[in-house]
Amino acid sequence: MSIDRDAxxxxxxxxxxxxxxxxxxxxWAAEVAGLRSEARILDAACGPGGDIGALLRAAPEGHVTAxxxxxxxxxxxxxxxxxxxxxxxxxxxxxxPEGPFDFVWCAGAVYFLGxxxxxxxWAPRVAPGGAIAFSEPCLFTDTPSEGAIDLWDGYARLTxxxxxxxxxxxxxxxxxxxxxxxxxxWESYYRPLEARIARLRPGAAPDLAxxxxxxxVEIASWRAHRHETGYLLSVVRPMPAPRAVGAP
Length: 248
Description:
CATH topology of the domain at 20-182 and 229-238: Rossmann fold
Shape: globular
Radius of gyration: 19 Å
CATH superfamily of the domain at 20-182 and 229-238: Vaccinia Virus protein VP39
CATH class of the domain at 20-182 and 229-238: Alpha Beta
Helix content: 25-40%
């Protein structure tokens, strides 16, 4: 379904985050990746910077490069993190920063490119021993209801954990660990969104009213089907190059 872009960003302006997430997810992924205190991190499609604090806590002597294609999100992030020398902010494509990076964090945005395309784009930018963590829509049951599938609005690559792992492997990566994004993470996104919907609904123009209704339906759908589907957080690492025949 086509939605009005301006109305969409009217709804999503000034939110603390642009998708499900919590600090515990970042801490878990950083531990799985073996993140060093001085790690160089890329926060890809950072939105308004909701995960930067958790990334800096995972690597307090490190540096975060945060990038998002939507320039107003970067401006919102700048208001929170612009004075911190450990943070560099960029407006642009999430695959363009050169790195190298010890850790790439991408919360809920890989689906714009597809797993294989995103990982292949980041692979040359991952430092030796580095890792990538990303969350991706996932089915948690072999018999999902129509409502669970409809939550993702026709997302053609929707699959289960095994299907995600297969795409990771096809891109030349190995999966180190996975875990489902929990209810706290989803509510941390949806509750502020609900509050903003309530503020904007009175007197909303038709285009905005349509966007508000779609968001309301999405929230209700996730709450109804959260045991069937959600985001799977994967921590992955480039596979080591095969040794040449006769190499020691």
